[in-house]
Amino acid sequence: MRDRAAFAAVADEAESALGHVDLLFNNAGIVPFSTAAELSYDKWDLALAVNLTGVVNGIQTFLPRMIERGAGHVVNTASGAGLVPDPNVLYVTAKFAVVGLSESLRLAVARHGVDVSVLCPGPVATRTS
């Protein structure tokens, strides 16, 4: 999600093998936690790079192709934390940004035949091994 060149290479491979990408699902994230007293630039950089910039990279890689074709749908996964604040400042900040990005982008690309949705699921238990 953070490597723009790799993202573009995968996009080219996918379209070469399968044809145009009409549905883009930006669905990767991490849930870092840091108390306010323990926040650092490194923690901010990681949280925003995966949870926000990863979405931007997906959009920037595929959206121009969708606009050129006049069709497509982008689905960005944010979180319920993108709607209701809680003490996890790193995660909430990024997910609020994904919600705002998605809602604004939907308005900006509608005239190009592209739609945008944002998902805001609640907590999901995942295996951590």
CATH class: Alpha Beta
Give me the Rg, rounded: 16 Å
Per the principal axes of the C-alpha atoms, what is the gross shape? globular
Characterize the largest beta sheet: strand count, sense, and whether it forms a barrel.
3 strands, parallel
Question: How would you characterize the overall build of this protein?
Answer:
This protein is of the alpha/beta class. The chain has one domain (4-119): 3-Layer(aba) Sandwich (Rossmann fold). It contains three helices and three strands. The chain has helices at residues 4-18, 41-69, 89-109, and strands spanning 23-26, 72-77, 114-119. It has a three-stranded parallel β-sheet, covered by helices on one side. Strand 2 (72-77), helix 3 (89-109) and strand 3 (114-119) form a beta-alpha-beta unit. Helix 1 runs parallel beside helix 2 and helix 2 (41-69) packs parallel to helix 3 (89-109). The protein is globular. 22% of the residues are buried.
Helix and strand layout, with pairings?
Blueprint: H1 4-18, E1 23-26, H2 41-69, E2 72-77, H3 89-109, E3 114-119
Parallel strand pairs: 1-2, 2-3
Keywords: Oxidoreductase
Family: Belongs to the short-chain dehydrogenases/reductases (SDR) family.
Organism: Lentzea atacamensis
List keywords for this structure.
about 130 residues, alpha/beta, Rossmann fold, three-stranded parallel beta sheet, about 50% helix, globular
Please outline what is shown here.
With 129 residues, this protein is of the alpha/beta class. The chain has helices at 4-18, 41-69, 89-109, and strands spanning 23-26, 72-77, 114-119.
